[in-house]
Amino acid sequence: MLIFKNYLYIMKNTNQSKLSILEKCSYGIGDMACNLFWMTFVYFGMFFYTDVFGIPAAAAGTMLFVVRIIDILFDVGIGVAADRTKTKYGRFRPWILWFGIPFGVIGFLAFYTPDLVTDAKMVYAYITYTAMMLIYSTVNVPYGALMGVMSSDSDQRTSLSAYRAIFAQLGGLIVLLCTMNLADYFTATYQAKFGVELVRATQFGFSTVMAIYSILAIIMFLVCFFYTHERIEPISEEKSKLSDDIKDLVTNIPWIILTLVGILTLIYVSVRNGSLIYYLKYYVVSGTDLLGFEVSNAMLFTIFGFIGTGFTILGTMALKPVAAIIGKKNTYIGAMGLGSLFSVIYFFLNPSQIWTMLFLQAACNFVVGPAMAMMWSMYADIADYSELKTGRRATGLIYSSATMAQKFGWSIASFIMGLLMAAFGFVANTDLGTDAVEGIKILFSWAPLIGSVLAIIVLLFYKLDEKTVAENSAKLAAIKAKKEGK
Hints:
globular
């Protein structure tokens, strides 16, 4: 009789864990909303503050660095607060409802460009960018945690993760395909109608695009809230102090190594992605001929981004079989090595070699793009290692630290870009001299190697190979089976 009751209980909870396509899409659309702004900052953040808003490059890079450091610390607080939230809607969904609309409003204000003197612009930029990064965390951190309480079924979570990745990529594609092209359209329309100077018209064009993204993001967040459900209550077999978990973390050598690699990888990716638009605008010939059509720099940037996203997806699909053959560590080292080589080649190209540039963009994103996806798997291995070593599992804290590593790497990249551009004598929206143009080339081709080469060196000290990971997994399974047997 007891066995029959247990069977019914299992079947009941398994059925409840099944998610409809509508709910999976609704969850995924939440990350699509986030990416409308996240990818805008990744691709256009530095460009917006220098070429559109009119802030000096060094000042803009410093601001991006300082604010993101504050945001990194804020993430931990939001995670702790969300874990302790209890409402009729659950723990994590309410944050999407409460802060979805403020997210859209502040997102627009961050890209709004009031006519101010430089010092006042810096104050406005600091206030709005800081507010945007903090409000982003209040939505995105609980959103990420929501996946873990929507279903207890491992296959459903895997499927949910895939939906999230697909919609995130779609959000990125919207940014790549629409941002500069729509901004140019609104700029030209506004200037033709009101006869204002180009700089002011450009500011209007960019702000209008972000107003559209803001409205879309709010709608998407509301869809995510209303059509997702929290089903799983947190289960804590063992309570541990936060101080103990942090102590475990900072003494975990594989975690330290992988976190450094994460920071360095993001430096490589962010410097390269952030400087692409400068490379195309100030080095590649304007009005480039492509398949018999005259392509603007804005359209060329869109093509580069589209190819990069597509080959990132293809690279991710090829990641699992390659890693299974040569191991995660070796795959990562090989990817960063090839990415470094492909990046450097750009320095030696002349402005008209567009097809070679596009080929290198595809190759570089194919090998490097999936690296972050593999990193999440390596963090799971570290969670097993930590649990076996300490008897406590702090997967959430490890995941949070991985997110912080990404943001920290992105912050350092912005700082590096700002300093280098200032050193090369970059002045936005002017005919750059030879030294400044050479500097842009170095920024896009050689500077990313600060991250990739150092990441390879640090990875050499990573000792969790496939054999060790398998042994740790088997030991944990044996320990858990023994406890359940009692």
